[in-house]
Design brief:
Elements lengths: L3 H13 L5 E3 L7 H13 L5 E3 L6 H14 L5 E3 L6 H12 L7 E3 L7 H11 L7 E3 L7 H7 L7 E3 L1
Parallel strand pairs: 1-2, 2-3, 3-4, 4-5, 5-6
Helix pairs in contact: 1-2, 2-3, 3-4, 4-5, 5-6
Length: 161
């Protein structure tokens, strides 16, 4: 995995990055400090378009930091957070960010222990967001109620359950 020191150095490099468009940090067990450093970098980076953070034990707190960065980021088009256990609270934080983000097109939240509360928050966000085209919610705890909340948006967003 990437420890906090290396993640901090990577985040510093991302702030000044002018060429790297895709960053894959799959299965690196990113720490709280590392996730916060990455979130700070995303607030300032204006080149990165794809970020893959699959299987990093991000959890709700780190998801909230990334969500805050999405509000100020104007280039990230794909964010892959599959299998990170962000739960409803992390999904709700990302939903709040989606209400303000105007560039993110793809969001992979499969395998994140998201229930109806997270699904309903994402549905509310989709009322305001006209850019997101792919939302992957497979392998979560969303039942009929959460699916019904998202159903009205199935025409504008490719929803995967």
């Amino acid at each position: 995995g990437i420890n906090a020191e290396y993640m901090g150095a990577l985040a510093d490099a991302l702030v000044g990055n002018r060429t790297l468009k895709t960053l894959n940090l799959w299965d690196n067990n990113i720490t709280d400090e590392g996730a916060k450093a990455l979130a700070r970098a995303l607030e300032h980076n204006n080149v990165l378009t794809n970020l893959f953070l699959r299987e990093n034990s991000i959890g709700k707190g780190r998801a909230e930091a990334l969500a805050a960065a999405l509000v100020d980021n104007h280039t990230l088009e794909e964010l892959w957070l599959r299998n990170n256990n962000i739960g409803d609270e992390g999904a709700q934080a990302l939903a709040r960010a989606l209400e303000h983000n105007s560039v993110l097109k793809g969001l992979d939240l499969a395998g994140n222990s998201i229930g109806n509360g997270g699904a309903e928050a994402l549905a509310r966000a989709l009322e305001h967001n006209n850019v997101l085209t792919i939302l992957d919610l497979r392998v979560n705890y969303i039942d009929h109620g959460g699916a019904e909340a998202l159903r009205p948006f199935s025409g504008k967003v490719s929803l995967v359950f």
